[in-house]
Specification:
The protein is α/β, with parallel strands linked by helices. The protein has a single domain, classed as 3-Layer(aba) Sandwich (Collagenase (Catalytic Domain)), CATH 3.40.390. Helices cover 49% and strands 22% of the residues. The chain has a four-stranded mixed sheet, sandwiched between helices. A hairpin with a 6-residue loop joins strand 3 and strand 4. Helix 3 crosses helix 4 and helix 4 packs across helix 5. The longest helix has 16 residues. It is globular, with a radius of gyration of 14 Å. InterPro entries: MetalPrtase_cat_dom_sf_prd, YbeY.
Length: 140
Amino acid sequence: MAINFFNEDIDIKLKDKAKLKTWIKDTVEEEGFKLKDVSFILCSDEYLLTINQQYLNHNTYTDIVTFDNSEKEDQIIGDIFISVERTRENAKKFNVSSDTELHRVMIHGILHLCGYYDKKPEDKALMTEKENFYLAKRAF
């Protein structure tokens, strides 16, 4: 089992990495999956825009792009790209701390890897409910 954090074209220091990894692992297990290998790549808006354009043909800024690399249905393997600039901006907009918004987006990516979607209103509502549920379980 591996959870890795990388910075790409930004400088950010994550707090409580060990607790963050435990929280992510516990979330995956509670959803009924085995965590094999997840990489979080923290980056700028521009870096993520390039990823969005190159791989998804979307020409829009976003806070997250998730790639599911799992080969077995019960295992989680993926790469989660997160724009730190976007999460900081959204934290101000939603009046929450930058860490809380970053954690929400991280768990959002994990939930995508667990099979949750957010395109339709009812899917988005369930996703938000799950995000709130797991955010409340953070012990840090």
